[in-house]
Specification:
This protein has 426 residues and is of the alpha/beta class. Helix content is 44%, strand content 14%. The strands form two sheets. Strands 1, 2, 3, 4, 5, 6, 7, 8 and 11 form a nine-stranded mixed beta sheet that branches. A two-stranded antiparallel ribbon has the order 9-10. Strand 6 and strand 7 form a beta hairpin. Helix 7 packs antiparallel against helix 8, helix 8 runs antiparallel to helix 10 and helix 11 runs antiparallel to helix 12. The protein is globular and about 65 Å long. It starts with 9 loop residues before the first helix and ends in an 11-residue tail after the last strand. Pfam families: Erythro_esteras.
Length: 426
């Protein structure tokens, strides 16, 4: 990818944004953006934080348009497969689904719970359940998690289902589980043992995945319970690799995680058939092409890059999100209580600062098909994680060539904190 490093002209950039942006005042204003993305097989919807209400609400609005008007048939998110599969059963009216929306969302019980156990997600899930109500089973929209962290939860789900169905693969599942058991369900403990004492469980989880892959390939029709087993087994394989590499440091654990998310997504797409179309909800750092950022210099890849490399041109449409200022849900340390934190005004010269100067209101901007040179310069682009320290803002900006990182961008001028099911600290 081409990177421009010449100094940018601030006024030229502001005028280019002003000339190309469209005001965003209501959900219907996103209709042209949904239509522009409709030809893709993968529409990637980003977020600049995991705790901003408007990012969830605008992604919901776009997802509804794509599902209702363009026949997209699944949403895949940056979440654990087992928890998301509980939601999937709920929205598809599965006989074993949780009895209520709150019960389904309380499946997200691992920190950071607020990412999916929130009121904004509840609105999406309620809509999906109603949308699916009168559809035949094979046409119901699915909801799936792509992340790699749920090693033990995925093992639990595999064993539970194999016991229930009296399946011969249970022996391999129990063997894999017993290998991990001494590590107290702590990924870091396993990673230390695997990396420094060669006490790894790789052979056991790979064997289990092979058996479950073969089982689903032999099955006739669409058996989603078998897909559930297969993806949970895939999680155990790649989580084993992830925790093994994590203690060594470097980019490899990040790359394992994002490669896993792409592999899980591709398997779900194959399950849904050759005409499947997916909407993906993940952080900008995953869906925006890594080659257009400083991640490339650190040998890091991500979902957006991998999909663009693997798919035909036009098959992937990535939409980034950002905000100038407001409030966010985050924590001040890993596994710490969630808080509502202030997001200060964007730094001078950053992409969000330029968007604000171009118009102090919500707006969206198309990069694909535009030839404005200002969009091919490098700008700082804010990224907020689940751990956030507003007073260290300088380190939250990723150098980005915006028109190469995304196909379009949604800007929220003044954002509000997500509404978690568990209230934030005052």
């Amino acid at each position: 990818m081409r990177r421009q490093n010449t100094p940018f002209d601030r006024q030229e950039a502001v005028e280019a944004i002003r000339s190309n942006a469209r005001r965003l005042e209501k959900d219907a204003d996103l209709q042209p953006l949904a239509e522009a993305a409709a030809g893709a097989a993968y529409v990637l919807l980003g977020e600049a934080s995991h705790g901003t209400s408007e990012f969830y609400m605008y992604r919901t609005a776009l997802s509804k348009l794509l599902i209702e008007q363009q026949q997209f048939n699944l949403i895949a998110v940056e979440g654990d497969w087992p928890s998301c599969y509980e939601v999937n059963k709920y929205i598809k009216h599965h006989p074993e689904a949780k009895g209520s929306l709150d019960e389904a969302l309380h499946a997200f019980d691992r920190w950071p719970t607020w990412m999916w156990a929130n009121r904004e997600t509840a609105e999406l899930i309620a809509w999906l359940r109603e949308h699916n109500r009168d559809l035949p089973e094979e046409r119901r929209v699915g909801f799936y998690g792509l992340d790699v962290y749920s090693l033990w939860e995925s093992m639990d789900e595999i064993i539970k289902h194999l016991k229930k169905t009296n399946s011969p693969e249970l022996a391999s599942a129990l063997k894999a589980f017993s290998c991990f058991e001494p590590h107290g369900r702590e990924g870091q403990n396993y990673g230390m043992a695997a990396a420094f004492f060669s006490e790894h469980c790789q052979d056991e989880v790979v064997q289990l995945l092979k058996e479950l892959e073969a089982k689903r390939s032999r099955a006739e029709g669409t058996h989603e319970a078998l897909l559930n087993d297969e993806i949970n087994a895939l999680v155990t394989v790649n989580a084993e690799r992830y925790y093994h590499s994590m203690v060594r440091g470097g980019p490899e654990s990040w790359n394992i995680r994002d490669r896993h998310m792409v592999e899980a997504l591709k398997r779900v797409m194959r399950f849904h058939g050759p005409k499947a179309k997916a909407i993906v909800w993940e952080h900008n750092t995953h869906i925006g092409d890594a080659r257009a950022t400083d991640m490339a210099a650190d040998d890091m890849v991500n979902v957006g890059q991998l999909l663009r490399e693997q798919q035909a041109e036009g098959d992937v449409f990535a939409i980034g999100f950002g905000t100038h200022s407001g409030h966010v849900i985050a924590a001040d340390a890993w596994a710490a209580p969630l808080e509502e934190l202030r997001v200060p005004e964007a730094r001078r010269g950053s992409w969000e600062d330029l968007m604000h100067e171009a118009g102090a209101h919500d707006q969206w901007l198309m990069f694909r098909g535009t030839d404005a040179e200002a969009f091919r310069q490098t700008y700082g682009h804010r990224a907020i994680g689940v751990v956030y320290h507003p007073h260290y803002e300088r380190g939250n900006y990723v150098p980005s060539v915006m028109a190469e990182r995304y196909d379009a961008f949604v800007f929220v001028d003044k954002s509000h904190a997500l509404q978690p099911l568990v209230p934030a600290m005052a």
